[in-house]
Amino acid sequence: MRAGLVLAMALLLSACVRLIPESDGPRGPVTPAPPPVVTPPAPTGPAPTSALMAGVRPGPTVSGLGFAQSDAEAALRSFIESCPSLLRREDTTGLTQRSDWQAACDAAPGNVGRADTFFTTYFETAIVGSGEAFATGYFEPEIRASRTRRPGFETPVYALPSDLERGWTAEIPEAERTGRPPLGRRNMNGEFVRYYERSEIEDGALDGRVPVIAWAADPVELFFLQIQGSGRLRTPEGEVIRIGYAGQNGREYVGIGGVMRERGLLGEGPGKYPGSMQGIMAYIRDNPEEGRELMRLNKSWVFFRELTGDGPLGSLGIPVRRESSVAVDPRFVPYGAPVWLDLDRDEANGLWIAQDTGGAIKGANRFDTFWGAGEEARTIAGGMSGRGQALILLPKGAVERLNNR
């Protein structure tokens, strides 16, 4: 989404950004598995940076998963939408080649109505690393806004600034200038400096200098829409404006849920708030001054673009779909690949298609499930924290080829 995004962030480097509840990691049951096809690094070594480093081994048969027909049909529709990308993009996981997907993509349109047979015919399962999954949720929020500034609509929804660029600030030594330069801007003296942070933008640093798509009624709702990375603006006249991630100011993302937890504000007991998105928002509304300063700890600011089409766009540039699209770390799961989740949250169980990513979606078996728009989606996504097992569905023959490397 969001290139879509949550709640992630530094998620903000993707098309999708979202609020991710902090976690100690997966704690789901571990199913004994056969020896790895690709040997993972020693426990004392560096953290895996790819599926091959994490270790890949065959999983159970697809036919034994027992997915529901409606679930398979929804996944098949999303898979069909992903196929042009699958056949064009290089798989950064190293698990597949573009040609591996050709047969499944050719057959997919003709198998609508027979999705269960399609997946059992063309796919096999693989377990990456331990297979222990941790899944959160994101959604497409809708907030009140106006095309024009008017009383009650005072918070700007900015488009991408023309002065946002990449470069090296003077304080970074030449020897440390490796990789992609950070985002920033040129000051009045032509020197490259870091871009304005959230507090500066809220105080008017961009006033009259950056295009405004619309004016939001509630800065708190806009804050969380930025974390999600895309959403809808509904005007008093009834117009619905769909917006998506266009860029970010390059400043540090701070998950305010983690800060609140450290301060003892979240949890159970008197005076504490639930550790969900709804709980965090309730605290901010109940404590406006403290809440404003809390939000300003997150220096990141997301810029938007107006979208057309029938859904928010994921990292593949295609719409993400409710209960079918999942955000992944593309180093561990091929974009467009089917994913099977078996979690302690039943509503998230079943087939998903990897169509998005996010800055907080890092590592093997880390997923962010998409729940669409509306209050139900908001409730499910805001409280989603599921643990269990994950299987990646790869074209038949891919795991055997890895075994013979």
Describe this structure in words.
The protein is α+β, with helices and mostly antiparallel strands and 405 residues long. It is built from eleven helices and 17 strands. The protein has helices spanning 51-54, 69-86, 102-107, 115-122, 198-202, 219-228, 256-262, 277-286, 288-296, 375-383, 398-403, and strands at 56-58, 123-128, 132-140, 142-146, 155-158, 165-166, 183-186, 192-194, 212-216, 230-234, 240-248, 302-306, 325-327, 338-343, 350-356, 366-373, 386-395. The strands form three sheets. Strands 3-16-13-15-14-17 form a six-stranded mixed beta barrel. The protein has a six-stranded mixed sheet with strand order 5-9-4-10-11-12. Strands 6-7-8 form a three-stranded antiparallel sheet, with no helix packed on it. A hairpin with a 5-residue loop joins strand 7 (183-186) and strand 8 (192-194). The longest helix has 18 residues, at 69-86. The two termini are 35 Å apart.
